[in-house]
Amino acid sequence: MTATPRPSSALHTLTAPEARDLLVRREISSTELTRACLERIQQVDPQLHAFVTVTPELALEQAALADRALADANGDAGKTPELTGIPVGLKDLFCTEGVQTTSGSKILLGFEPPYDATVVARLRATGAVFVGKLNMDEFAMGSSTENSGLSELLHGTTRNPWNLEHVPGGSSGGSAAAVAAGECLLALGTDTGGSIRQPAALCGVVGLKPTYGRVSRFGVVAFASSLDQVGPFSVGVEGTAMILRAIAGQDPLDSTTAPERVPDYRAQLAGGIRGLRVGVPKEYFVEGTEPDVTARVRDAIAKLEELGAEVGECSLPHTDYGLATYYIIAPAEVSSNLARYNGTRYGLSATDVPDVFGAMDEARRRGFGDEVKRRIMLGTYALSSGYYDAFYLKAQKVRTLIKQDFDQAFERFDVLVAPTSPTTAFKLGEKVADPMAMYLSDVCTIPVNVAGLPGISLPCGFDAKGLPVGVQLIGKAFDEATLLRAAFTYEQATTFHTERPSL
Ligand code: GLN
């Protein structure tokens, strides 16, 4: 946990806790750190395409304020919030007052929200520095960021910093790539079916999806409201703990947030995992999982055992129905949530079409990409009269069964462990023509959203091609503290998190 001083040219390689120590001791300033990240963006983003919008003026203004607060605190860590002066990136679906928010869609180009999302407001209040908005699959639908509607505009799709021919994962691919490449120290994403954990795994960083209701969704462009959850990306678990504490907790503006107490996660990382009961769900080592992934995850399980965990096998028998359930419920919610984009209130409008309904149709035709249109059609169909009981209602019932599987497993275990994704980062273009293959990227993450539970992905090694592998830990509802402690204990006993891509 102690900071190692580095040359200023390498400030962007600091982890959030290292930067925090140096900022408090005033060995570096937030302005220097922010400049280092902005320079890094200038240097690597023309190849990486992680950012939709970079906000250097805003960032340097916030950094100057942070430096003033840190100077006033005069070395007393208790006098400034932990994220003061730390550069953070935001997935482009968090409303940021006065800064364009596209949700990766042409239909929202030019939309400047009049207010901040609650998570953005909370980060702003802690003194964090916003370096920009990050690319994503359109409306967060996808697993590779190739569904972004902005790729043409950005002159390329977002790349994986470990190998530019490969995808960063998705839908929060920009967030994962930016953190892995040192363009910002921390980032926020959202996870509806795996969109934080899967890109974190593919880019070799830590990604946490908190419990449904742990973090406010107010001001977050909605995809599937009963599944969406906001969470962080970080190099190392400690940074994850720092930013989770800053964004978590009940919000009067989101009635689905829970009145649960938010612990000081960072203070609870130590303590080890002796006696922790770790379950291995046998259904999660699915056919089609790459042998390297299985091997690295098995190594991670052995390491947890070596560290004192009591490991045993368990079963989540309805796992097979996870994808089918998700691909009814999520599109059904999409068909409702995306009805508002018709060119009248925000973003793109078809002003050349004279009649009002024609103009709405045309705005949607021009503004939405293929995957978004596919989901709207699937959802509209599943909810239509005569099909509602057969599809939507049945999916809701299976959702309960999936949740009960987890309830039973958590009677015997404190944490479950599984692969995050069955594959490492695939090649750009490899799965775009085959939606089913793309959907399968999330077999191991989707059930966790369906059940509303917290899950974290951690680096656990590399495949033969040198691409990162992620291991997933799944926790009980609102028990992120145990999840983070287990993750931290594993991380301290391994070195994978210290490896950075040579970009
Ligand atoms: N890949 C999944 C989908 O396309 C999950 C996306 C997400 O979590 N936002 O729906």
From TrEMBL:
It comes from the Bacteria. One of its GO terms (molecular function) is glutaminyl-tRNA synthase (glutamine-hydrolyzing) activity. It catalyses: L-glutamyl-tRNA(Gln) + L-glutamine + ATP + H2O = L-glutaminyl-tRNA(Gln) + L-glutamate + ADP + phosphate + H(+). Allows the formation of correctly charged Gln-tRNA(Gln) through the transamidation of misacylated Glu-tRNA(Gln) in organisms which lack glutaminyl-tRNA synthetase. The reaction takes place in the presence of glutamine and ATP through an activated gamma-phospho-Glu-tRNA(Gln). The active site is at K91, S171, S195. GO terms for biological process: translation. InterPro entries: Amidase, Amidase_CS, Amidase_dom, AS_sf, GatA. Heterotrimer of A, B and C subunits. HAMAP family: GatA (MF_00120). The gene is gatA. Residues 32-484 form the Amidase domain. One of its GO terms (cellular component) is glutamyl-tRNA(Gln) amidotransferase complex. Belongs to the amidase family. GatA subfamily. It is an enzyme of class 6 (ligase). It holds the Pfam family Amidase. It comes from uncultured Chloroflexota bacterium. Its EC number is 6.3.5.7. Keywords: ATP-binding, Ligase, Nucleotide-binding, Protein biosynthesis, Transferase. This is Glutamyl-tRNA(Gln) amidotransferase subunit A.
